[in-house]
């Protein structure tokens, strides 16, 4: 079964996308895989599978490999004497900007390429933590209280200390700080504003229980992963998460009650349906006083959360067989015809 | 000054986009214009300005004109002996799907082409009337109360009759009905569900005052159009709106109090800033008991609402000189370098 892994991108998470792709390569060895690298200038390269190592990209060796371009139905390698076409479904594994902000989804849809990954609306609503709050609220899924701070606003925060400051549109903990007292505020805001003009501020609850659950919908039903209780210090910083993206061994299932599993699955399903069709996503939750709170949605989780599934290859195969259809719009020119006729032309 | 008008698209509003483009051509004769037609299969054609007539497209004559493709920085016409590049800013005039749903914005950004039009987030939030409600609520701009009905829901509506049923993601009144009594409900829902799986239902207020206001931001300040009180029957249906898209003569300013103008401008500015930078938008408002309610945001208004501006050419020129910058992300491969070193590779 053919599948192209699309990775890289003009994103703060470019490097972890490379790590993710290398990890997924091992886990999907059953597939006939191709590797398409999107560099930071949005050039695409077809990467030799044997060269799928981090240093290939950091040393710029990908530039010696064939450059390809988007074309209707796939990618194309142009040469002096004709062109070679690559037509296969794509697994969008570009984390952060490009991959999760709706750009890649728009490109795949526009060029009519079937793909695994969030569609453009799902991307936009999950990429921005502020919009995820709106989405969750509209669906009745609880999230922590929050406030929004924009770069042009006064640096006044109403949330009580300690709180957590997050750039609205970044994953992988980039630019995130816990602020324990007023003296730490300015620095934390400076750091976060380096990455985004909009910040989300939430109470920081030390020792809160966290649970991750991944899943996807295929043939009308959701396949859930096991529930994981992620290891953490205060929270995972970028470097720890970076290593996290190369996870491939299976993890231990969290020892949680059936009731909690059911609560997590219900919340997952509410968020997933129907926006995230076509994607395998991971939702990160808090549990507070027996209730489940959505922390964030990862529409393209690190290494596709492969380590949470027993049969990851089987899951991807199942998902590939159940990608959402695009509704074709056929233009009939009825209005122009009727107006031209009325004008006697 | 060079400018390409991009129009057409795989959209229910394909035909009115053609009408819009023809109208704007006349109004921007001061520019060195090109015309790029996107057909319903997402092929692009460079249209001869002399052939900018509706029948060119309804008869399929555009297919005899040069086909062009997206490339970094612009469009490209490929030939046997090399290719010709077109590099100029683009005015996104694709109404509805593609143009207003974030696809074209994603493409322009991805291929690094400067453009007039809503960026991808602004597109997504204004294209879907449901999300526009979320946006307005978060900014403290009033809208009518509403409920959402999905295709899979029971056909039970809580809003009192009469109410208005709208597909969430279509402009130009397509699929919109006023439902005056229970007997009319099923048909109205059938019609609306032809176009979208999600409907927005709002109370219908007969004779409510409507006001339209267009504008854009350039060099840090907003240029407002005059306020128009649109002519209407019960509401504009598609055929009337279609003709509406070819408007080019200036309209009379609504005779409204300075207070109301100020209220409308304040609401406009609140919605516009900072999401809509780079776009000329039209906001349609209701006035009820001295208060202003946002009805909808048109991020690519019909014929760019040229008829609401005294000096439309001057406006477009000003906007072109003030398009938002994209923040470039440079990848340094710091993490891969440090990890490779740690591994001794």
Secondary structure elements and their pairing?
The structure is a homodimer of 345-residue chains.
Chain A (H helix, E strand, L loop, with lengths): L1 E7 L5 H14 L4 E7 L5 E4 L6 H5 L8 E5 L2 E6 L2 E5 L3 E3 L10 H8 L4 E2 L3 H8 L1 H11 L7 E4 L12 E5 L9 E3 L5 H9 L4 E6 L5 E10 L2 E8 L9 H7 L13 H15 L8 E8 L2 E8 L13 H9 L13 H10 L2
Give the helices and strands of chain A as they follow along the chain. Answer: EHEEHEEEEHEHHEEEHEEEHHEEHH
Largest interface: A-B, 56 and 55 residues
**What is the typical, i.e. mean, pLDDT of chain A?**
91
Helix percentage of chain A:
25-40%
Radius of gyration of chain A: 22 Å
How many structural domains in the coordinates of chain A?
3
Category from helices, strands and their pairing of chain A: alpha+beta
Low-confidence regions of chain A: none
Oligomer: homodimer
Per DSSP, the total helix count of chain A is 10
The H-level CATH homologous superfamily of the largest domain in chain A, spelled out, is: ATP-grasp fold, B domain
The level 1 CATH classification of the largest domain in chain A is Alpha Beta
Span of the ends, CA to CA of chain A: 53 Å
How is the main sheet of chain A built?
Answer: 8 strands, mixed
The geometry of chain A reads as globular
What fold name goes in the CATH topology slot of the largest domain in chain A?
D-amino Acid Aminotransferase, Chain A, domain 1
């Amino acid at each position: 079964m053919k599948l192209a892994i699309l990775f890289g991108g003009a994103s703060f998470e470019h490097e972890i996308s490379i790590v993710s792709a290398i990890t997924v390569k091992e886990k999907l060895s059953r597939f006939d895989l191709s590797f398409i690298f999107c560099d930071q200038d949005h050039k695409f390269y077809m990467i030799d599978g044997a060269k799928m190592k981090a240093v290939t990209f950091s040393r710029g060796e990908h530039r010696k490999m064939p450059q390809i371009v988007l074309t209707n139905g796939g990618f194309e390698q142009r040469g002096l004497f004709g062109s070679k076409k690559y037509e296969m479904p794509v697994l969008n594994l570009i984390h952060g900007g490009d991959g999760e902000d709706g750009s890649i989804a728009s490109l795949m849809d526009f060029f009519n390429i079937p793909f695994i990954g969030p569609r453009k609306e799902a991307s936009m609503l999950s990429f921005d933590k502020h919009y995820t709050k709106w989405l969750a609220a509209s669906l009745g899924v609880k999230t922590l209280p929050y406030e929004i701070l924009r770069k042009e606003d006064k640096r006044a925060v109403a949330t009580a200390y300690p709180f957590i400051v997050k750039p609205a549109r970044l994953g992988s903990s980039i630019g995130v700080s816990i602020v324990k007292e007023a003296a730490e505020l300015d620095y934390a805001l400076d750091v976060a504003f380096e990455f985004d003009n909009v910040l989300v501020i939430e109470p920081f609850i030390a020792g809160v229980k966290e649970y991750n659950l991944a899943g996807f919908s295929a043939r009308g039903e959701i396949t859930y992963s096991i529930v994981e209780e992620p290891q953490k210090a205060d929270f995972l910083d970028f470097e720890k998460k970076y290593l996290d993206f190369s996870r491939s061994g299976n993890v231990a299932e969290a020892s949680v009650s059936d009731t909690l599993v059911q609560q997590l699955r219900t919340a997952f399903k509410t968020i997933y349906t129907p926006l995230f069709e076509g994607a395998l996503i991971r939702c990160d939750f808090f549990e507070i006083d027996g209730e489940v709170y959505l922390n964030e949605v990862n529409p393209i989780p690190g290494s596709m959360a492969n380590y949470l599934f027993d049969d990851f290859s089987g899951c991807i195969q199942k998902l590939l067989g159940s990608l959402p259809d695009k509704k074709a719009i056929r233009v009939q020119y009825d209005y122009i015809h009727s107006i031209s006729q009325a004008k006697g032309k």
